[in-house]
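Reminder: ligand-aware prediction takes two inputs, not one.
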Amino acid sequence: MPNAWKLNGEAEALLARADQVAEKTIAPAAPAVDREARFPAGNIDALRSAGLLKLVSGKDAGGHGLGLRAAVSVAERIARECPSTAMIWIMHNCAAATIDKHGTPELRKAVAEGGKLATLAFSESGSRSHFWIPVGPAEKSGTNVKLNAAKQLITSAGACDLYVWSSKPAAAQGLSSIWAVPVNAAGLSIPAKYEGMGLRGNASAPITAKDVTIPASNLLGEDGKGFDVMMGIVMPFFSIQNCAVSLGMMEGAFARTIAHVNGSKFSYDGAAINSLPQVRGHVAKMRVKIDLLRGFLLDALDALEAGRADAMLRVLEAKVAGAETSLEVHDLAMRVCGGAAYRKDVGVERFFRDSRAATVMAPVSDALYEFIGKAVCGLPVFG
Ligand SMILES: Cc1cc2nc3c(=O)[nH]c(=O)nc-3n(C[C@H](O)[C@H](O)[C@H](O)COP(=O)(O)OP(=O)(O)OC[C@H]3O[C@@H](n4cnc5c(N)ncnc54)[C@H](O)[C@@H]3O)c2cc1C
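Here is what comes back for the chain with flavin-adenine dinucleotide:
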């Protein structure tokens, strides 16, 4: 459908560029990225060349100054071919939006004009998926800050340029502070390569920080007020884009499922798999679930842009709606494609494996249901 995301002209032009990159560069590389658990550096270079790493950065810093609607459209398109690349790209946008709002002019330009790739380094092995309670300390020393931490499962670990990094506050009260940390800072190391079940290309490795010294001016937001940054910027960007990645994955799996059921035949009578009413019923269920999620996502974007009263609820719902719908749709894709679904050439099993991550990426679905439950019962959500 033309302009289904209701984009403005600039965003439509960028989506058209993303479409080209997805078709010419990302799609052909996707099976090998998965098979070899290889960070898709060529895909990221192509996205950078197309101006897509600066999509959310402010125009005054050299970016496009576009928001979540444009980001969602591109994330969904990339995820149809390579969910690993889509996850790297949305993590970059979360970090880039945080730097754009709170970073020094130099940092903002480094991302927007300089094409630096960034990511979120929040999760720690000490606080696991409860990223809003980092346990790694930050210690002030003159004009610098010293960070120590054991981060877990950080997308683009070692392959990006900048981490948007959480720690305990340096001096103030509060749960956390957020910093920009260069990937080559002395004291950072990656103790183990990521060999995941899914999203195998996104280098989600642990990172150890031992006395990592950065300028105190790399603070993003106020000391002790990391939670405000997490809730104000990161959460909407992550949750809504994550939903878009789940949607794109489902579209990717759906297209491959339809190709299989239409193209594979019983040789004894020449009928395709789609001649089975149960199969048609399952693909219909997949389509209904995908379209429901697409409608939800469009409404969530409307709610955020209009500042509607239910905007924060939509933010909390988006990641869990995407993640859980995606589990159901990918289960159906595997079922409908039968034993052939286990074959890599059919293409469905890669999406099935990739689709599992969204549920356990923080905030995990179980925690989100708890937050949403509190919200709809009128209780304090984070109390
Ligand atoms: C592919 C991938 C990429 C990732 N990329 C990043 C990244 O770029 N940056 C980053 O910071 N992190 C990243 N993570 C980490 C992610 O955000 C989570 O922190 C991590 O997956 C949590 O795993 P865990 O084993 O610590 O879960 P645990 O916290 O140990 O959870 C175990 C179980 O407890 C449940 N549970 C946990 N908390 C609650 C709660 N409050 N209420 C109810 N149930 C709960 C969970 O649902 C789960 O069933 C990534 C993870 C993956 C898998």
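The radius of gyration is 21 Å. The mean pLDDT is 97. We will return to this case in the review session.
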